Amino acid sequence: MAFIETLAASDTNDEVRAMYERQQAHYGYLPNYAKVFCYRPELMRLWAQLQSGIKRHMDKRRFELVTFAAAHALRSTLCSLAHGKALTEFFSSEDVQAIARGEVPQSLSDAEAAMVAFGRKVARDASAVTPADVERLKQHGFSDAEVFDIVATAAGRAFFSKVVESLGVEADPPFHAMNSECRQALTVGRPLDFLKPERLAKV
Questions:
Q1: Does residue 93 lie in a domain region?
Q2: CA–CA distances in Å: residue 178 to residues 24, 79, 120, 186, 192
Q3: For the purposes of burial, counting CB atoms within 10 Å of the CB of 45, is it exposed (0-12), middle (13-18) or buried (19 or more)?
Q4: pLDDT tens digits, residue range 13-37?
Q5: Which pTM does this prediction carry?
Q6: In angstroms, rounded to a whole number, what is the distance separating the alpha carbons of residues 36 and 83?
Q7: 58 CB contacts (<8 Å, ≥6 apart)?
Q8: Number of domains into which the chain is organized
Q9: Rounded to 5 degrees, what angle do the CA atoms 51, 70, 94 make?
Q10: DSSP string across 38-73
């Protein structure tokens, strides 16, 4: 499940139980990532507020593209799977896989392709971003405020991805049930079965 012990709802306080219940109500199951926040449920609340604040200024397609680009650049299998799956609301599975490979499918506009490349760069090495990178986005019609939104989305994903990956959060069953070709293409870091006993024995 994770590298740290997590708490069952029956063993927690009201704040943690409420957090678990919100997650359960939203997904229909309690995600593994939520469980590692059991010791600091206030951080889950703050994370949700940050995400809500960022999303308020972006449409869902843009948010998911930048988030996926950042998650993929950060080599977070969990986040790549989650947001790659979310992207299938706007793109075919084949196009999502193409984006993961660094390609530009026809369904992606030139502005979106520039945004995805920029989001990857922010996540991979923010210190490498130059004024020319920002100017390139502006040439595609992005305002200064929208550039900020893209940066905030990619930077925020770095926080969450590093938390769940460092704590060894295992992917939830719905991701194991994804199309195998798509699942393999989006597995960019840890394999989904890395916590299986036979794999742990080799570590």
A1: yes
A2: 20, 14, 24, 11, 12
A3: middle
A4: 999 999 999 999 999 999 999 999 9
A5: 0.92
A6: 20
A7: 66, 146, 149, 153
A8: 2
A9: 110
A10: TT-HHHHHHHHHHHHHHHTTS-HHHHHHHHHHHHHH
Q: What is the DSSP letter of 172?
A: P
Residue 63 lies in a domain: yes
Question: Does the residue 39 lie in any domain?
Answer: yes
pLDDT at 195: 56
Which residue stretches of the chain are H helix? 14-27, 32-35, 41-55, 60-73, 77-87, 93-100, 110-125, 131-139, 144-166, 173-176, 180-186, 197-200
| Token duo for residue 3 | 């590298």
Question: Per the structure block, which two tokens stand in for 69?
Answer: 């680009």
| Tokens linked to 28 | 């229909």
What is the span of the domain harbouring residue 24? 1-56
